[in-house]
Write a structure and sequence with these properties.
There is one protein chain. The chain has 103 residues and is α+β, with helices and mostly antiparallel strands. The protein has one domain: Beta-grasp domain (Ubiquitin-like (UB roll)), CATH 3.10.20.30. Helix content is 17%, strand content 30%. Strands 2-1-5-3-4 form a five-stranded mixed beta sheet. Strand 3 and strand 4 form a beta hairpin.
Amino acid sequence: MKVKIRLFASLREITRIRERVAEVAAGTTPAGLLAAMVRDLPALEGLRAHIIFAVNGDYVAGDAVLNDGDEVAFIPPVSGGRAGRRETGGSGGCPRAFFHPTN
């Protein structure tokens, strides 16, 4: 069966792959598909434990069984944003970050 694999953020940057179609056996899971990709693309190993999966737009566990035609997204941990000013806020004087949009 065939599934479409989509890579996001740092996974896309590391592999230079946005998406690809893969032929997989019946019973393949997102975790199994990722393991196969790591064998072909060892640079993914460092992020492997932190990747979450989505199938056809819904988050799933790594052991979900894939079906023919599924779209599987590998989503790495994401952080960042623009460093902003910190301001004290709230009744306890806890710091609160705030975002300053740019034009």
